[in-house]
Model the fold of this input.
Amino acid sequence: MRHAFRLILTFLKVNLQIALAYRLDTLVNIAINLMWLGWELFSLSIIFNNTDTLGGWGVGELIALLGVFRLVNTLMAALIWPATEKFNSSVRDGSLDYTLLQPANSLFLISFSRIVIWRVWDLALGFILVAAGLSISGGTWTAFSLLSFIVLVMTGMLVIYSLWIVLVAATFWFIKFDNNVTILQALLDTGRYPATIYPPWLRLIVTFLVPIAVATTVPLQALRGDLSVGQILLFISVGLVAFLFAYQVWRAGVRRYSGASS
Amino acid sequence: MLKIYLRLWQVNWSEQWQYRANLLMYLLYWLVSPIVYLIVWITIANSQGSVNGLTANDFVTYYLVLLIVDQLTSDITIHILAYKIQDGTLSGDLLKPIHPILTNTLVNNLAFKALTLMALIPIWILLSLFFRPDFSAVSWSSLLLAVPAVIFGFLISFLLNATITCLAFWTTRVYSISEFYYALVVLFSGQFVRLELMPPLIQQLSQYLPFQLFLYFPIKLILGELPPQLIMRSFIMDVIWLIVAFLLFNWVWREGVKRFSAVGA
Done:
C-alpha cells in the first residue's frame, strides 16, 4: 500500500514537470474549460427560465448534477484517455512488455502513469459546483444521505473504471480495437441531465450497458432521499462485483498477451 | 475541371470508406447531444403543456430536422488540414496545379458527409418511429427553398473553418482557436435550443452573425415557420457572408502560403 502511494506521488511529480514545460498551453486549456463551464451554466439558466423543474429536479439539483458530471468527466480526461492512448499503442508495438516486467501491478501502472495534471483544477470546480448546487436547492439532507452520496459517487466511478478495464482488455483479443473507449465518451453527455427524464430504452442503456447514470444520477438520487437502503447497498455491491470481474478479465488478457515483437 | 473533382471524389470516398468504423463511432458521439436536448425540452413541454407557446411536437420536428441539416452543413476541415500544415505534408499538395483547399479538402468534406448521411438515415428513421413527429407544416416548396439555404450554409461554414485552420500557418494553437469558434457556433446557431428561447440579446446578435445560417435558418425554412420577408433577408445575409468568408479565406490563405516553409524541406 505504501509502495503504491509512493508510486502515485512519483507519477504526479513527473506529470507535473511535463505540464510545467507547456505553461501557456495549460493556461489556454483552463480558459477553454472555464468557457465551457460558463456555457453549461448559461444553458441551465435558459432551461430554468422556461420551467421550474426538470423531471422533478430543481435548478440547484441540476447544478449539483453538473458538478458530479464534471467529476466523472475529469476521471475520463485526466486518467482514462491518456492511459488508453498509451495502452493501445503499447499493445500494438509490443512495448507493453516493459510495463509487465516491472515489479508492480500492471493494471495499476497502466492506469496511473499518465495523468493530465491541470485537470486537478476541474476536480476542484466539480466539488464547488456540487456544494453550490446543494446550497441553492436548499433541500434537507441528513448525515446518512450525504454519506451515501459520497459512497455512491465513488461506486459510480469504480463502475465506469471497471467498464474501461474490460473495454481496454478487449484489445488483447482484438488488436485493432482501438476505438475501445469511444462508446464510453459518446454516451457521457447523457450524464448532464437526470436519467429519470429519459425514455426507458435510453435509461436502460445508460444504467446497465454503459453505466453513466450510475455515476451521475444515482448519487444525487441518494442525496435527495429517492433511494432505499436496499437499493444503495445493491449499487455498492454491483460496483464491487464489476471491479472484481473486470480485474479477472484483465488478468486473463495479460496471460493471453504474447508481445508483438516476439 | 469536372474530371478533377470526379477523380478526387473517388480517392476521398475510398479513403473515408476505410475508416467506416471510426465514422460510425463519430456519428454516435455526435448524435447524443441533440437527442438529449430533445428529450429535455419535450419533458418540459409535456409537463406544462407548452414552452412559450411551443408544443412538444415543435421540439421534436426541430431537432429531427436539425440532425439532418447539421450533418449537411457542418465541416471537418480542421481535422483533415491542420496537421498537414503543421507537419509539412501540405507541400505535396501545393505542388499540384489546383487549389488544395478548394478542391481536395472540399471534396474530402463532401465524401465524409455522404458516408455519415448513409449511416444516419436508418438511425433517423428509427428515431422518427419513436418520437412520432408531425411534419404536416413541411411543404415541397419549403424543402426546395432549403436546398440553396443548406448549400450556402455549408459553403460559409466550410470557408470560415478553412480560414481558422489556415491560422496554423502562424500558430500551433489552432485547435484552441477552433474551440472558441465552435463555442460561438453553439451559442448563436440554434444548436442547443430554438433561438426563440434564447435571451433577446443573443437573438438580435445572431441575426447579423453567420452561425444561424448553418442551422437555425435552414431548419425554420424547412418547417415553414418563416414569413417571406425574413426568408429574403436571410438569403441576402447568405450572399453577404459567403462573399465575406471567401475574401477572408483567400487573404489568410495567400498570406499563409507566403510564410509557409515546410518542415524538413
